[in-house]
Write a structure and sequence with these properties.
This protein is mainly α. The chain has 3 helices and no strands. It is globular.
């Protein structure tokens, strides 16, 4: 709830799945913040598409593959 409050997310976003990603807490936080900015740019709640883009960018920063992001 700290980095990705339910009130800011679209109903289909499963926040529990974020906790199970192979990404450290700081990376998840960075992705949550980036997803929030993407959502603001779209004038919408945080959606899965925003999280996917943000997570892909985080994985790229770490030089890791992100093909299997299942949200």
């Amino acid at each position: 709830d700290l980095h990705l409050p339910a009130r800011l997310c679209a109903p289909d976003v499963d926040r529990d799945k974020l906790a199970n990603l192979s990404l450290a807490g700081g990376g998840i936080r960075n992705a949550a913040v980036a997803a929030a900015f993407l959502a603001i740019a779209d004038n919408s709640a945080i959606e899965k598409k925003h999280l996917r883009i943000a997570l892909q960018r985080e994985y790229q920063k770490l030089s890791r593959l992100s093909d299997a992001i299942d949200l």
